[in-house]
Amino acid sequence: MTASEKILLISNEFPPGPGGIGNHAYNLAKFLNKSGIKTDVLTVSDFVTAGQENEFDSRNSFSIQRHKRYEGRFKTYYRRLKEIRSKAGNGEYTHVIFSGRSSLLASLIIPKGKMKFISIAHGGDVNAESLMEKMAVDKALRRSDLIIPVSKYSASKINSSIDRSEVKVIPNGFDFDNIDSLNTKKKTLTPGKITLISVGTVWPRKGHHNVLKALPRLKKLFPELIYHIVGRTADMSLINEVMNDELKTLVKIHGQIDNTAMQQLLNESDIFILLSETQKSGDFEGFGIAAIEANYFGLPAIGSRESGLEDAINDGISGVIVDPKNVEEIVSAVNTITEKYETFSNGAVKWAKEHHWSMIIRKYIESIRGIAG
Q1: 139 to each of 109, 165, 324, how far by Cα in Å?
Q2: What is the pLDDT of residues 269-297, one digit of tens each?
Q3: Residues 74 and 194 placed together within one structural domain of the fold
C-alpha cells in the first residue's frame, strides 16, 4: 500500500450513535489514518442530535461526511445512494470499504473501475431472510476483492460458492478514548454478592430475556444479586414478557448512557453476560465487542454458543460459552467463574489487550495489501 492510495469507508452506523458496526467502522477509520493510510468516512447520523454529531466529528482529524435525513423515506434513500455513487466515483479513491448491509448493497450502484472493493461481514448483513436480498448480498460480495468477516461464525454464513481465497477472518477490536488514563479496578468478589452487566441495544437478538430467566436460580446462590442492562431500548417486548415483581428488584435498566457512566458501571460489575440468539430474519451476533471491552475492565464474560461470541470469548480463559436458553448451563457458568474468579479476571484482561485496535489494524493492513492486482 503506497502513500498515493486512499480509502473511502462507507458505513450505515457511526458514533456517537450506538451500534457495534459503527464502533467497528470508527476504529477502523481511526487506526488506518493513524497508520498513515488516508481514510475518509461516508456515513449516517442516527439516534443523536446535531450538536452531539458536530462535537464528535470535531474531535477527529479525518474526514467524516454524514448523510442527511429528509421528511420522506424515498427522498432520504434516493439522496443517500446518489451521494454514495458521487463520492465513491469521483476518482479520488483506490479502495472502498463497505460496512453494514445497506452500505454493502450500495456497492452494486458504484462503477468499480480500478478501485478495490472490501466488504466487512458482521452478522445479519450477510444472512438476509428474503431470497431477493440474499441474491443481492451475494452479488455484492462477488464484486468484492476482499471479504472480511469479524468472526468464524460470520464467515460460515457467507454463500459457500463464493471464492474462499477472498475471505479473510479478522476479529473485532476495541479501543477507548484516553485508554491509558482509564481507572480500572482490581476485581474481587464478596461472598453472596454478584453483579452482572449486559451492554448493547435492547432488543430480542441480544437475549436479555434469557438472562432474566436465569436470575431466580442465581438469586438463591447470590442473595445480593444485581443485573445492569445498558443500551438503547429499541424493543423491550421479550423483557416485558418475562419481567415480574421479583425481577424488578434485581434489574436496573439504564438505557443509552455516555462512555464515562458505562465505564463506571463496568468497574462496579463482576461478570459481563450476553446471551444473544439468532433471529428468524437471519440476524445474529457477529462478534460481540462489548464482551472484549468488559474484559479490559477485568470482567469475565458469558456468551452464546452458535454465534460470533465464540470468537469474542476465549472459552475457559476469558469467560464461558453456553447455550443461551439453558438455565442450568448459565448457572454453571457463573459458578465456574466465581470459583476461579481471579484467574478468569486476569485471563479476561490479557485477552482484551490482544484485541486492541493497535494490534488488529495490522491484520487489516496486511490483508488489504495482499489483494491481488
Answers
A1: 11, 17, 33
A2: 999 999 999 998 888 999 999 999 999 99
A3: no
Query: Edge-to-edge, what's the strand order for the sheet holding 271-274?
Result: 251-255, 224-230, 193-199, 271-274, 301-304, 319-322
Task: Using alpha carbons only, give the angle 327, 329, 330 rounded to the nearest 5 degrees.
Answer: 65
CB 20 within 8 A of CB 286: yes
Q: Which domain holds residue 26?
A: 7-173+357-369
- Structural domains of the chain, count: 2
Largest CA distance in the chain: 64
Residue 165 grid cell: 481465497
User: Phi-psi region for residue 200, left (φ > 0), alpha (ψ -120 to 50) or beta?
Assistant: left
Read off the pTM.
0.93
Considering the domain architecture, whether residues 335 and 189 belong to the same structural domain is answered as yes
Residue 292's SS3 state is helix
HSE at residue 335, side-chain half, CA atoms within 13 A, is: 12
Residue 1 included in any domain: no
| pLDDT tens-digit readout, 185-241 | 888 999 999 999 999 999 999 999 999 999 999 999 999 999 999 999 999 999 999
Q: Could you write out the DSSP letters of every residue in 78-102? A: HHHHHHHHHHHTSS--SEEEEESHH
Instruction: Quote the CA–CA distance of 277 and 272 in Å, as a whole number.
Output: 16
**DSSP string spanning 327-352?**
HHHHHHHHHHHHHTHHHHHHHHHHHH
CA distance linking residue 234 with residue 305, whole number of Å: 24
